[in-house]
UniProtKB/TrEMBL annotation:
Belongs to the COBRA family. This is COBRA-like protein. The keyword Membrane applies. It is found in: Cell membrane. GO terms for biological process: cellulose microfibril organization; plant-type cell wall cellulose biosynthetic process.
Length: 473
């Protein structure tokens, strides 16, 4: 059943009317039978949940999600000790600084006695405890990761990275984050304990929608020496999916195009991410030649997540430029440049995803790492690019060095290769998991003889018609 649905996902892209139905089936396929019945009913009864799941669907990463495992590892006189682990199963979307914030609502009147590897941002009202107050008494706690350099007696495995979690494809050995908490005023057996509800995940801003906690197969843990395996008393699984629409109402990046065979540089569409409007919204952008640039960048909002961008026509924090550079007998070459126009953000461990039919014949890539993404195993038309560690994996803020670039060498496929009708340009581009706005197809650089060929054809047809008229008079 799952295999059939997996093959049909390309049809979903073509037929919007099947969007919701197929996305629901895809999610049901990922769960075991016990979970799928509960999810299926939840989706049919609660329409908003269904819409959120449909909105979160990503055609280039159909199975991508963040899975939270809540493992109860021991019982205490008034509750339990649990290890909570977030696994980032998204191929190219990572959690950047300042990192994740995980929240939930307790089912009863639980409190957090102590934590390792993480901390609650607020203690809350613990006045009912006369001695040794708990770490957190809030009904809706918010948890953050500890920073690197935390003392060892406060750490557990996979903690203390400042909330940063890498993507599954980019760094498969570093895609998880964990913390441990001791919960009081809770159930003390599998039958009396209740899972938290209403999970929320900020990574670091909005964008993720989390489902309910579902009982799963108990997790198993291997000791450091590898000679013993222990098992959780109980495990709850929570799945969180991403929606760019929920993350931000406006785009965050755009694409510009050029080619060696045309002098025209096709810019990002005007007002892609916003419009210059310093009259009504002063400070919406900064001119790079402004004498006040340094004071504005280091002003009161320097720690804000809101971008402060350079004044451009497109007003996007990130621009990706795709330049068709050279044409050889059996190969062709593309230059890709990523420019940062954001004065408030350095992008560490950035990544770029591009979709183009010739990625199945990518021969060489210079100064970037590359991995093919094949969500539909029979089609290899999507590539993920990211920087080389300690060389260009850090994209500086806007300025003279706020860019990275590379070149890609493709082998021509005689049956499909052409420079006509914009074939040489990408179908989609993502930066750090967000879809970038492309120029309209009719604006793509065209071959220099295209317009003259059309004019010649019309002229020839006109002269031929006139000749026939004269002949038959």
């Amino acid at each position: 059943m799952c295999a059939v649905l997996h093959r049909l996902e390309t049809k979903w892209e073509k037929e919007a009317k099947h969007h919701t139905q197929m996305n629901v089936k895809k999610h049901i396929c990922l769960l075991d039978k016990a979970q799928s019945f509960e999810l299926f009913n939840g989706l049919y009864v609660q329409a908003p949940h269904l819409l959120l799941l449909a909105e979160a669907y990503d055609a280039l990463d159909p199975n991508g999600n963040i899975t939270i495992k809540w493992d109860i590892i021991s019982w205490t006189p008034d509750g339990y000790v649990a290890v909570v682990t977030m696994f980032n199963f998204q191929q190219y979307r990572h959690i950047a600084p300042p990192g994740w914030t995980l929240g939930w609502t307790w089912a009863k009147k639980e409190v957090i006695w102590s934590m390792m590897g993480g901390q609650a941002t607020e203690q809350g009202d613990c006045s009912r405890y006369k001695t040794s107050p708990p770490h957190c008494c809030k009904k809706k706690p918010s948890i953050v990761d500890l920073l690197p350099g935390t003392p060892y007696n406060q750490q557990i495995a996979n903690c203390c990275k400042g909330g940063v979690i890498n993507s599954w494809a980019q760094e498969p050995n570093n895609y998880a984050s964990s913390f441990q908490l001791s919960v009081g005023a809770a159930g003390t057996t599998n039958k009396t304990v209740k899972p938290p509800k209403n999970f929320t995940l900020l990574a670091p801003g909005p964008g993720y929608t989390c489902g309910p906690a579902v009982v799963g197969k108990p997790s198993k843990f291997v000791t450091a020496d590898g000679r013993r395996v222990t098992q959780a008393m109980m495990t709850w699984n929570v799945t969180c999916t991403y929606s760019q629409f929920l993350a931000q109402k406006t785009p965050t990046c755009c694409v510009s195009l050029s080619a060696f065979y045309n002098d025209t540089i096709v810019p990002c569409p005007t007002c892609t991410c916003g419009c210059q409007n310093n009259a009504t919204h002063p400070g919406s952008c900064v001119n790079p030649n402004s004498p006040y640039l340094a004071s504005v960048v280091n002003g009161p909002g320097k720690n804000s997540l809101a971008p402060l961008v350079q004044c451009t026509r497109h007003m996007c924090p990130i621009r990706v430029h795709w330049h068709v550079k050279l044409n050889y007998k059996d190969y062709w070459r593309v230059k890709v440049t990523i420019t940062n126009f954001n004065y408030r953000m350095n992008y560490s461990q950035w990544n770029l995803v591009a979709q183009h039919p010739n990625f199945n014949n990518l021969t060489q890539i210079f100064s970037f790492n590359y991995k093919p993404l094949t969500p539909y195993s029979s089609i290899n038309d999507t590539g993920m690019l990211w920087g080389v560690k300690f060389y260009n994996d850090f994209l500086n803020q806007a300025g003279p060095i706020g860019n990275v670039q590379s070149e890609l060498l493709f082998k021509k496929d005689k049956s499909t290769f052409t420079f006509e009708k914009g074939w040489a340009f990408p179908r989609r581009v993502y930066f750090n998991g967000d879809n970038c706005v492309m120029p309209p197809p009719d604006a793509y650089p065209h071959l220099p003889n295209a317009s003259s060929h059309v004019n010649f054809s019309i002229f020839t047809l006109l002269m031929t018609s006139l000749a026939f008229l004269f002949l038959f008079e």
